[in-house]
Design goal:
- This protein is mainly β.
- 0% of the residues lie in helices and 48% in strands.
- The protein is built from no helices and eleven strands.
- Strands 2, 4, 5, 6, 9, 10 and 11 form a seven-stranded mixed beta sheet that branches. A four-stranded antiparallel beta sheet has the order 1-3-8-7, with no helix packed on it.
- Strand 7 and strand 8 form a beta hairpin.
């Protein structure tokens, strides 16, 4: 079992920055690929970014490429999402997810474990 707890969300003005963190429990964190997804009101949950088990492979949604950076610290069982140049349309609940496979994945169905989410609100 893996439990995930997100933090770092909040209210920020457009153009601002936030860093989300996702702390994982369990001894198998370092073998799992991790992802960030988001869900805006009335919309489907969508892929944001993913990182492979060793941090060497990353993948981003086109909408965040160049603005968001995913990283991980396996010694701390934590994955991060650094967000800069935030836009109003980035407003959503952001979820951290763990994939039992070690490779980067973008589909929701490939992730086995999910956190409760953290709200990010960008004011225009």
């Amino acid at each position: 079992q893996v439990q995930l707890v997100e933090s770092g969300g909040g209210l920020v003005q457009a153009g601002g920055s936030l860093r989300l963190s996702c702390a994982a429990s369990g001894r198998t964190f370092s073998s799992k690929a991790m992802g960030w997804f988001r869900q805006a009101p009335g919309k489907e949950r969508e892929f944001v970014a993913a990182i492979g088990w060793n941090g060497k492979s990353t993948y981003y949604a086109d909408s965040v490429k160049g603005r968001f950076t995913i990283s991980r610290d396996n010694a701390k069982n934590t994955v991060y999402l650094q967000m800069i140049s935030l836009k109003f349309e980035d407003t959503a609940v952001y979820y951290c997810a763990a994939n039992s496979g070690g490779v980067v994945a973008t589909m929701r169905t490939t992730y086995n474990y999910w956190g409760q989410g953290t709200q990010v609100t960008v004011s225009s």
